[in-house]
Amino acid sequence: MNRLPSDQVPSEGNSQKVLLTGSVLVSSPWVRDPNFANSVCLIVEHSDNGTVGVLLNRPMVMDPKPLLNFLFEGEVVGAASGMAHFNFGGPNNGPILAIHNESALAEGGNDHGVYLSAQVETLRQLAQSSPEHLRWFIGHATWGKSQLEQEIVSENWLLLPAVPQIVFEQEESMWKRALEFYGDSVLAGFPGVKKVPSQATLN
Q1: Rounded to whole angstroms, how far apart are CA atoms 104 and 126?
Q2: Hey, is 83 helix, strand or coil?
Q3: For residue 152, is it within any domain?
Q4: SS3 label, residue 122
Q5: First to last CA, the chain
Q6: Position 179 in a domain
Q7: CA 108 to CA 114: how far, in whole Å?
Q8: How far is it, in rounded angstroms, from Cα 1 to Cα 142?
């Protein structure tokens, strides 16, 4: 994954031309598909042929030992504390992905402090160093050619930049926080309005 660009919202006329890699997808409140309802997803690859992303707010409870044994070839060296935060990235199998805030071990990322790694040696170093923010993702989600663009045009997804305030938010509150973040960004252009009210009666 290369440098993450700022978020862009495709329109029907230019949906094929917008590179979505690095954007955060936030499912709209009316999405009922159990795979994506109330979900936040980071797009890690986007091209004319399709899209790959990882769900950010689907935590998993699992024993870290199998992954530790894989990374350290059976010789675990005090890394278990950094391996506890697992997430279900999506229904498709694929390489283990780490999203973290350790710039020295980044294989992709942005200027906001969100980095990605997938090479075994890098994952091993991350497990040993245990940075402040370190989340492990197993599996990923995919969209076919032009499928995601059409879903965005249909307003099934909202687009945001990949910032730590969203990516490293606690999973149980991530979707709500992302919606608030989106609302605040929209209202930023209106004079005298700085934040979405927390209660509908205050609108």
Answers
A1: 10
A2: helix
A3: yes
A4: helix
A5: 40
A6: no
A7: 9
A8: 15
As for how many domains the chain has, the answer is 1
The DSSP secondary-structure symbol of 187 reads: H
| Cα distance between residue 194 and residue 57, in whole Å | 27
* pLDDT in 10s for each residue of the chain, 203 residues: 443 433 444 444 444 445 788 899 999 999 999 889 999 999 999 998 999 999 999 998 877 777 777 777 766 555 555 567 889 999 999 889 999 999 999 999 888 999 999 999 999 898 888 889 999 999 999 999 999 999 999 999 999 999 999 999 999 999 999 999 998 876 655 554 455 455 443 44
Distance CA 108, CA 123 (A): 13
Can you give the residue range of the structural domain that contains 102?
A: 23-169
Structure-block tokens of residue 34: 């159990």
The amino acid at residue 165 is Q
**Sole residue written with tokens 């973290």:** 100
Helix (H), strand (E) counts: the chain: 5, 11
d(Cα 76, Cα 16) in Å, to the nearest integer? 46
**CATH number, domain with residue 106:** 3.40.1740.10
Q: Which amino acid is at 199?
A: Q
